[in-house]
């Protein structure tokens, strides 16, 4: 407590010393002038600006103090202090010294004596705490001063380094820095859908009076509500991205960061920040107090905060935030599979939900064929509600099942990849008429490093006991494109998707002895030191191709 009084009186002592320097008649040396300047600069740096929002940076466990005083002749003068924490909870308090401001006015005029100074120093009982608060809510203290007084504001953060904003107003007749909130500042949820939530709130008096300078801005996220706009911005920055200074002024496309997406729809500008904890959406809708939030994910809880923002001062006030959970996505319709018909299904990698296909057998034996086109897919097959097959599909896979006519099969597909996956599905009772060609043991293409030259490479692949057609395609590729090209390759696409200039040759071959069912091909006319991507397509009796795994080979630089 003694230390607290010491810090309270410190600025008085500094000001006294500075004023005494004025009264000492000594040569005007540079050191004396520097000393006076340092004292006054130190003291005035502690004075809280009146009628202006001040940003205060706090270090953990280190209190910071600001001062202001109300002069004589301002009887019953009202004043307000608004403190906005921008991150963690803080502690702050207001202390008042009821006689020091009188001395301060005299000291500033050089009208003082040491007796009065010492009397002021010996009156700790005149210092009292009139307000204290701990938390992270925006808090406003409204006071009334009937005499001159010096006030001290002390701020402390015990959790971590942080920053706050402080606004002192001693002239309450000049209007409000912060937009006003209505008597009931709650946000009402009036509609919930699978991908939308409709909100409404009561109008701010400031919007009704100054419609052209005040607007509403909405912030949507999946984490929690924010009690102030600066708290929301701090949270977004701490997640690893940069954010324009404030929501109200961040609507210029020139201020957008790479992690931000801007959407303009119906004269409303939305900015979506891509952060590690999910999306944080900012939307400003002018003076409208009802808004439907679009493009949400089903069965997801969202938190909604509305801020009324003064475009001239950039000051804002927060409504009481709310939250809502979107409705669950309706069960997908089960698609019917027909004999011999091939369908291709694209699966969402983010949702990880099953896609269902149904088939009613007309024969005792059925065969399901799956060809993986892209990504990774998990397959479950149930017969009359009992699981008969479950597997992660790689390449081409057949399931031959036995049952009874009119048995009901349900095929469920799910992507196990982060990105979207794609797969072709076919069911048929005709085992003797396969849709896809007979496959070799491996679909890998091999290259021979020792047979590489500056303008040719030699590749090989396995064949089967069935005579089939094989077509070779090539294209040049850059080093930094290899990974993306191999990952995004659609293994179900045929040569019709390739440019004619990429075709190298087509050939037929087979061998009854599988040990000798291997073919090689030397591709000539290549460029020196160039990277090539080679593909081989196998065609069966039905004409549907199967694509081997792509092979990347580089010709030699020197020969």
Strands, helices and their partners?
Elements lengths: L1 H22 L6 H16 L6 E7 L5 E7 L6 E9 L4 E8 L2 H10 L4 H8 L5 E9 L3 E7 L3 E8 L5 E8 L17 E6 L4 E5 L3 H5 L4 E8 L7 H10 L21 E6 L2 E8 L2 E7 L5 E4 L7 E10 L5 E3 L3 E4 L9 E2 L6 E5 L7 E6 L4 E10 L2 E7 L2 E8 L2 E7 L5 E8 L5 E8 L17 E2 L9 E6 L5 E9 L5 H7 L14 E7 L8 E6 L7 E9 L5 E3 L3 E4 L5
Parallel strand pairs: 19-21
Antiparallel strand pairs: 1-8, 2-7, 3-6, 3-8, 4-5, 4-7, 9-10, 10-15, 11-14, 11-16, 12-13, 13-14, 16-17, 16-18, 20-27, 21-26, 22-25, 22-27, 23-24, 23-26, 28-29, 29-32, 30-31, 30-33, 33-34, 33-35
Helix pairs in contact: 1-2, 1-3
Walk me through this protein's architecture.
There is one protein chain. With 559 residues, this protein is mostly beta strands. The protein has four domains: 43-99 and 126-169, GOLD domain (Jelly Rolls, Sandwich), CATH 2.60.120.680; 178-243 and 277-330, Immunoglobulins (Immunoglobulin-like); 334-429, Jelly Rolls, CATH 2.60.120; 445-554, Immunoglobulins (Immunoglobulin-like, Sandwich), CATH 2.60.40.10. Helices cover 14% and strands 41% of the residues. It is built from seven helices and 35 strands. A hairpin with a 2-residue loop joins strand 13 (268-275) and strand 14. Helix 1 packs parallel to helix 3. The longest helix has 22 residues, at 2-23. The termini are far apart. Residues 1-9, 12-28, 38-44, 100-125 and 242-267 have low confidence and may be disordered.
């Amino acid at each position: 407590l003694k230390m607290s009084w010491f810090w309270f009186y410190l600025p008085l002592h500094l000001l006294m010393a500075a004023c005494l320097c004025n009264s000492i008649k000594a040569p005007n040396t540079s050191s004396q002038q520097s000393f006076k300047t340092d004292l006054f600069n130190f003291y005035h740096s502690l004075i809280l600006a009146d009628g202006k929002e001040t940003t205060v940076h706090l270090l953990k466990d280190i209190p910071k103090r600001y001062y202001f005083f109300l002069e004589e002749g301002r009887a019953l003068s009202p004043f307000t202090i608004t403190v906005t924490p921008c991150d963690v909870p803080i502690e702050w308090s207001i202390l008042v010294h009821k006689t020091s401001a009188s001395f301060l006015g005299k000291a500033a005029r050089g009208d003082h004596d040491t007796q009065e100074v010492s009397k002021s120093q010996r009156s700790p009982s005149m210092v009292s705490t009139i307000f204290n608060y701990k938390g992270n809510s925006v808090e406003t203290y409204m006071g009334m001063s009937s005499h001159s007084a010096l006030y001290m504001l002390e701020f402390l953060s015990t959790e971590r380094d942080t920053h706050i904003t402080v606004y002192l107003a001693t002239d309450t007749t000049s209007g409000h820095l912060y937009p006003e909130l209505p008597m009931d500042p709650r946000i009402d949820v009036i509609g919930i859908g699978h991908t939308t939530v409709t909100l409404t709130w009561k109008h701010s008096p400031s919007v009704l009076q100054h419609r052209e300078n005040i607007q509403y801005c909405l912030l949507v996220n999946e984490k929690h509500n924010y009690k102030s706009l600066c708290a929301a911005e701090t949270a977004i920055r701490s997640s690893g991205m940069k954010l324009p200074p404030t929501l109200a002024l961040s609507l210029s496309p020139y201020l957008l960061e790479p992690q931000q997406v801007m959407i303009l729809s119906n004269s409303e500008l939305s900015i979506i920040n891509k952060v590690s904890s999910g999306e944080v959406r900012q939307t400003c809708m002018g003076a409208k107090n009802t808004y439907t939030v679009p493009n949400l994910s089903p069965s997801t809880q969202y938190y909604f905060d509305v801020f009324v923002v003064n475009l001239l001062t950039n000051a804002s006030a927060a409504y009481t935030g709310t939250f809502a959970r979107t409705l669950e996505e309706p069960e997908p319709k089960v698609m019917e599979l027909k004999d011999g018909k091939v369908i291709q299904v694209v699966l969402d990698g983010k949702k990880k939900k099953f896609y269902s296909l149904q088939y009613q057998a007309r024969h005792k034996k059925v065969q399901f064929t799956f060809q993986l086109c892209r990504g990774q897919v998990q397959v479950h097959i149930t017969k009359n509600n009992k699981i008969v097959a479950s597997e992660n599909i790689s390449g081409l896979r057949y399931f031959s099942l036995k049952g009874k006519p009119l048995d009901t099969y349900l095929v469920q597909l799910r992507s196990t990849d982060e990105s979207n996956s794609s797969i072709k599905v076919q069911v048929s009772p005709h085992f003797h008429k396969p849709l896809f060609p007979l496959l070799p043991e491996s679909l890998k293409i091999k290259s021979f490093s020792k047979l590489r030259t500056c303008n040719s490479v030699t590749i090989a692949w396995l064949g089967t006991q069935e005579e089939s057609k094989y077509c070779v395609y090539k294209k040049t590729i850059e080093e930094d494109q290899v990974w993306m090209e191999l990952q995004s390759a659609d293994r179900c696409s045929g040569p019709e998707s390739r440019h004619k200039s990429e075709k190298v040759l087509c050939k037929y071959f087979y061998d009854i002895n599988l040990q000798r069912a291997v073919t090689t091909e030397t591709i000539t006319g290549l460029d020196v030191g160039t990277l090539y991507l080679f593909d081989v397509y196998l065609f069966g009796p039905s004409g549907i191709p199967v694509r081997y795994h792509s092979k990347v080979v580089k010709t030699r630089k020197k020969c």
